[in-house]
């Protein structure tokens, strides 16, 4: 196994959690195995593993980008991951205020609704 892939799996699990990784592995087929390898190696093994930004900072950036593009399914996944990256609900609201100014109030408003739904499940 490639070292960037191994590093990526480590960081992907740290951020998204063991249950998510287990689910991904169980649902990966021959059709999308190369895609899963690609995102694990490049997104997680290169970007998320770079120590120049903290996991908290990366989470905030990721939320802003996903909300600004309206990618709400992936957004919910990363809201859940915020618990693992020490990104507080207050951090998330501050990020959405930034999104509101630069990407639009409707996108930020929709994202805030999702944040409120997702954090109900935090311990």
Supply the key terms:
single chain; 123 residues; mainly alpha; AhpD-like; 7 helices; globular
Strand content: under 5%
Radius of gyration: 15 Å
Q: Report on the biggest sheet.
A: none
H/E topology pattern? HHHHHHH
Please report the first level of CATH classification, the CATH class of the largest domain: Mainly Alpha
By CATH, the superfamily of the largest domain comes out as AhpD-like
Q: Which structural class do you get from the secondary structure elements?
A: mainly alpha
How much is the average pLDDT? 96
Number of helices, counting only DSSP H or I runs of 4 residues or more: 7
The CATH topology of the largest domain comes to AhpD-like
Topology at a glance:
Elements: H1 3-16, H2 18-27, H3 33-47, H4 55-69, H5 72-85, H6 89-103, H7 105-119
Helix pairs in contact: 1-2, 1-3, 4-5, 4-6, 5-7, 6-7
Describe the 3D structure.
The structure is a single chain. By secondary structure, the chain is an all-alpha fold. 80% of the residues lie in helices and 0% in strands. It is built from seven helices and no strands. Helix 1 (3-16) packs across helix 2 (18-27) and helix 4 packs across helix 6. The longest helix is centred in the first third of the chain and has 15 residues, at 33-47. The protein is globular, with a radius of gyration of 15 Å.
